[in-house]
Every structure is written in structure tokens, then in C-alpha cells.
Amino acid sequence: MPRLARTTRLAARAAASAAALAALFAAACADATGPKAADGGSGSADASVPAAIVGSWRYGSVSPSNFWDDHTDVYSGNAYGISDQYVFNRDGTYKEYLYVYTQTYGCRTQAWVEMSGPVHFTDGSFTTQVADGHFKTIDPCAPSHNKDRPMTDDERNERGKTQTYALRTDDAGKTYLAILDGRYDPAN
Questions:
Q1: For 107-161, how does the pLDDT look when each residue is reduced to its tens digit (9 = 90+)?
Q2: Which of 63, 64, 137, 149 has its CA 20 to 30 A from that of 80?
Q3: Is residue 95 within 8 Å of 115, Cβ to Cβ?
Q4: CB–CB of 138/146 below 8 Å?
Q5: From CA 13, how far away is CA 3, in angstroms rounded?
Q6: Where are the beta strands (DSSP E) in the chain?
Q7: pTM for the full model?
Q8: Which residues pair with 137 in a beta bridge?
């Protein structure tokens, strides 16, 4: 099940890695443990972020496939990986940091996306609105694809989303934020 975990817990969501990289790369190449008090928010009374959610949550996965140079026996790295982090602030704002990479024998293509803006929580869901966003890609095998630019108005509007969620506790007693995408029973 996709999970976001508080600061140090990692959970797999590897199937989304390739699709996420392709979408991020295409968009970027277009020319146009307990809560952490990492909020930096104002703590205003009308904020919509529940106290249990305030702070930093992240997930990530790394491919079990590895690349080795057959001639030198030097390790080149994993085939792909993803990291996604949300920071929810008391003042009703959020930041999301997404990093995706894929690697073949000679190239490691990387994409970074940063988004921030207002977030609104209701019972069991939250909606993000991207007020500020940035893309960066690095493709050493096709340097003309390298980009480092802000999102356009249309791109920011396209990336706002509503997601259902649940706070869960794993077998070790650690709380995690489960993002539910319709494939999972919210009660599990």
C-alpha cells in the first residue's frame, strides 16, 4: 500500500517510479517517529491542517536491480528510485518535494519537482493548490533535455489535487500517513 512515513520510514511505491519520471521529464522538458516541528507556519487559529498531520512526511523506494560495469567490476547504481516528501504547515500551507531517477548503464536521468501553496484538509482528504512550482531535469546522455525552470500557470493549475488519506500505525507502533488512491480499503 502506498504510504508516506514520518521523516525516517520508507515504503515502496516502485510501480509509480517509471510513470512518474516520464511525466515529470516530459513536463520539465516542455518550454513554457513523532511529529517534527518543521512547519515554519504562523499557527493561525483558522488553519485547516490537523495537528497530527503538521510536519514532514516522506516515502521512497529504490530498485532491487543494479548496474555493474562488466569491464571494471565497478558498481554503477540502482536502476531507478523515487522520493516524495510533503511538509504540512500549521498555517494551512504545504510544500512537496519529488525526486525521481532512472539509470541505464551509461546514464542517470534525474528529475526534481518542487511545489508549494495552500492545502485544505477535510475529513479523510486533503486538497493541494500549487501556487509556486519548479522543475529541474538532468540527462547526461541528452544534455539538450536538461532544464531548470519555474512552472507555468497552466502547469501549476494541472498539479493541484485532492487525495484521500488515513493515519495508520504499523506493527512497530510508528504512525504513517497512508495516501489512498482508490485501490485500497480505507479501513486497512
A1: 889 999 999 999 999 989 999 999 999 999 999 989 999 999 999 999 999 999 9
A2: 149
A3: yes
A4: yes
A5: 8
A6: 4-6, 55-62, 66-68, 75-78, 80-88, 93-103, 108-122, 125-128, 132-138, 147-150, 161-169, 175-180
A7: 0.71
A8: 111, 147
